[in-house]
Amino acid sequence: MLRRILIAAALMIVLHFAVELLGEKVHEPIWFLLYLIPYYIVGNDILLKAWKGIRNGQVFDENFLMAVATIGAIAIALISRSGDYTEAIAVMLFYQVGELFQSYAVGKSRKNIGALMDIRPDYANIERDGALERVDPDEVSVGTVIVVQPGEKVPIDGTVIEGVSALDTSALTGESVPRTVHENDDVVSGCINLSGVLKLRTTKEFGESTAAKILDLVENATSRKAKSENFISRFARYYTPIVCYCALALAVLPPVVRLIGGSAANWGDWIYRALTFLVISCPCALVISIPLSFFAGIGGASHEGILVKGSNYLEALSKTKTVAFDKTGTMTHGVFEVNGIHHSSMENDKLLELAAHAEIASSHPIARSIQKAYLEGLTWQDDGEIAPKPADLALRKLDRSRVTELEEIGGHGIVAKIDGRTVAVGNAKLMEQLGVQYIDCHHVGTIVHMAIDGAYAGHILISDVVKPTAKEAIRALHDAGVARTVMLTGDAQKVGEAVASQLGIDEARCELLPADKVSAVEELLRSKPEGSILAFVGDGINDAPVLARADVGIAMGALGADAAIEAADVVLMDDDPKKIPLAIRIAKKCMRIVYENIWFAIGVKVLCLILGAFGIASMWLAIFADVGVMVIAVLNAIRALFTKHLHA
Amino acid sequence: MDCANCANKMEGAANKTPGVQKAVVNYMAQKMVVEFDEGADPKAVMPEVLKNCKKVEDDCEIYL
After folding, report:
1. Are A486 and A524 in contact (CB under 8 A)?
2. How far is A7 from B26, CA to CA, in rounded Å?
3. How far is A233 from chain B (nearest CA, A)?
4. Which end of chain B is flanked by fewer CB atoms within 10 Å, N or C?
5. For residues A139 and A185, is the Cβ–Cβ distance under 8 A?
6. Which residue has the higher pLDDT, A254 or B39?
7. Could you tell me if residue B63 is inside a domain?
8. What is the pLDDT of residue A140?
9. Which residue has the higher pLDDT, A74 or A130?
10. The one catalytic residue among A138, A157, A185, A326
């Protein structure tokens, strides 16, 4: 195609100078025939398609328009004996340049997005007779042991049976910190193995694996078209015929009126204006740039670990004014951890050490969380900041020999001798029973009081831990134009309200059963502002009915959770709440680009139509406008792919 | 399939084919998703869809 364009352009220029030099010496019909050569070279396929279109009764397509406009221009040049055939050839030439650019841009962005979502595994390694053999992942059955070497992609979901390694999940989640996996950990396909050799037992078939599912989802996302996209295809359907009839009217009516009025008809001039109309009537810039914008927006979002299941959901996300959240697992980690140590009579770590030893024989979740806090160090402090790791962490262990006379008092707690000191660990009732004056905690959660040698030693607060980025996420949501945030939780009023106020969430609806959550969302749907969208964010496993009921259902932490991917409209691969405002920002940017393109393309076309009607715009200007608008709109559309600057 | 407008036209053509409930052409992914009417045999309907699409875009090819 490029060669055809270049040859035709070169011929056209040569001919142009040849006419200047020897215009008089050669007869007119010869020039005409010579000019037909570049015209045919650059436009033969258009002419052929136009002819086929007419034969099939599909008149109004851009091939027909271009054919009529250029043949018309040549005819005018021939009849008026102006010898200006360059215009027709140039129009065809620029049209083809535009087409070429368009297919290049579309192909390029298809490839770009393919590279962003480069999670498609090409092969799986199976060990046979001590040697590794590469096989098609499709052929690997469930339960097969596969080997993933450093630098390779995990082809199929599975469980590690041998080896330790760091996995790069960035293609799936957008998260750049590698994840370490050990034996018995589940691994999802699409991750890249960074350090060690891993042996996996596959738990799914390739087609059911995460990578295959995500690819399928992203590739088909643009099939669910947004309203603005449908508007454009409807618009294009009416726009072209209308402009064509206008062109016909422009060619016939004014000359006729002028004839009746007694002046010269000026047929050539009016027909030329009508042909200019035809050139402008091509809707390509619009029709191409809108799906391209959505495609780029969805591709950019996937790169951030945000899967949007359709252009329509991207459009809806951009209009989100109300966001409802589930609490446990969405805003909080959903696991109970030591979240504070108060009124301690000794160092916090020392108190924790004693408590962990007193609970040494217990497997109760509370006991476990105390032991975990001691062995792994406190992860969070009261204010949600990350606590520094204690220096002696490697030396910490639970030593049974230090614990004697351990007595469990059912429903109250434990009393034991540790290093010769009497340690009592339990609830308020235990303290009362022991006659120890205790200090109540104003925090929400489970309180474990401690007394050492009969004296109160402080209490340990154990509660569900709020995700470190949750507060920032809520603030970013408000910044992104969300007017109302509501938390829906099954927890007690006190707990729910405490978390909501800590995070800056506007409202908390508490003590809701799963069915109540649906009716709460329905009520919110009724009270939301006209035309705005309500999004619900949940963990996707317990919240499927609510996800379905909301305008946009967003599932979090879906990596490896099929149910969530099925139930939601937008899927956040990791469980970072900050992805919610990011998703809304990406959607807003994409929609802004879509509207920019719509207004820009229609605006320039209408302007050119008006100028063309008054004879101010030549066919040159018309084709420049057409191709130029298309190029600008396509470049603008590709902008939707870039999301880096949208991070809060 | 190089032109988005042609994709729209193919979509229209496919939708008019008897036996097709809904056809969506995904221009960017170069895919067409066809939902059939109940009781219609996809194997019988698809050649018709192809024929109608060829009418609007003779250089289109459909891979099933």
Report:
1. yes
2. 35
3. 7
4. C
5. no
6. A254
7. no
8. 87
9. A74
10. A326
CB atoms A292 and B28 under 8 Å: yes
pLDDT digit string, tens, across residues A189-199: 888 888 888 99
Comparison of pLDDT for A476 and A280, the residue scoring more: A476
**Strand A403-409 and strand A507-509: pairing?**
unpaired
Sign of CA dihedral A194, A197, A202, A205: positive
Residue B8 contacts A where some CB pair is shorter than 8 Å: yes
Check CB contact under 8 Å for B2 and A233: no
- Residues on chain A touching B26 (C-beta within 8 angstroms): 220, 222-223
A237: chain B residues, CB-CB within 8 Å: 8, 12
Please list, residue by residue across A520-549, b when 16 or more beta carbons sit within 10 angstroms of its beta carbon and e when fewer do: bbeebbeebeeebbbbbbbbbebbbbbbeb
Angle at A296 between CA A121 and CA A582, to 5 degrees: 95
Domains identified in chain B, total number: 1
Annotated active-site residue A326? The verdict is yes
Q: Which tens digits make up the pLDDT trace of A283-307?
A: 777 778 888 899 889 888 888 888 8
Q: Domain of B34?
A: 4-56
Residues 6+ apart with CB under 8 A from A475: A504
Catalogue the long-range contacts made by A28-34 (C-beta closer than 8 Å, 24 or more residues apart): A28/A81, A28/A83, A31/A83, A31/A85, A32/A78, A32/A85
CATH number of the domain encompassing residue B35: 3.30.70.100
Greater model confidence, A591 or A348: A591
> How far apart are the CA of B43 and the nearest CA of chain A, in angstroms?
22
- pLDDT, chain A, mean: 83
Calpha distance A497→A132 (Å, rounded): 57
Q: Which residue of A has its CA nearest to B4?
A: A288
Q: Report whether A546 contacts A564 (CB < 8 A).
A: no
User: Looking at the domain assignment, is residue B61 inside a domain?
Assistant: no
Task: For residue range A200-255, list pLDDT tens digits in order.
Answer: 999 888 888 888 887 777 777 777 788 888 888 788 778 878 888 888 898 888 88
Q: Which of B5, B12, B29 sits opposite A219 (nearest CB)?
A: B29
In a domain, B19, yes or no: yes
Given a cut of 50, is residue A454 above it in pLDDT?
yes
Residue B1 is predicted with a pLDDT of: 38
Q: What is the crossing angle of helices A210-221 and A284-303, to 10°?
A: 160
A10 pLDDT higher than 60: yes
Higher pLDDT, residue A171 or B62 = A171
**Between chains, do B3 and A291 touch, taking CB under 8 Å as contact?**
no
Q: Which residue in the set A61, A109, A288 is minimally distant from B4, CB to CB? A: A288
Residue B62 located in a structural domain: no
Mean pLDDT of A555-573: 76
User: Out of A37-46, A104-113, A290-299, A575-584, which region has the weakest mean confidence (pLDDT)?
Assistant: A104-113
Q: Is there a contact between A223 and B58 if contact means CB atoms under 8 Å apart?
A: no
Tell me the three state secondary structure of residue A572: strand
| DSSP state for residue A380 in the 8-state scheme | B
pTM: 0.79
Measured between CB atoms, does A44 come within 8 Å of chain B?
no
Determine, for residues B8 and A62 on separate chains, whether the beta-carbon distance falls below 8 Å.
Answer: no
Find the CB nearest A291 among B4, B9, B56. B4
Q: Do the Cβ atoms of B3 and A220 come within 8 Å?
A: no
Mutate to test the interface with A, among B28, B30, B57, B58 (most CBs of A within 10 A): B28
Which residues in chain B touch residue A114, judged by CB atoms under 8 angstroms apart? Answer: none
Confidence of residue A477 (pLDDT cuts 50, 70, 90): very high
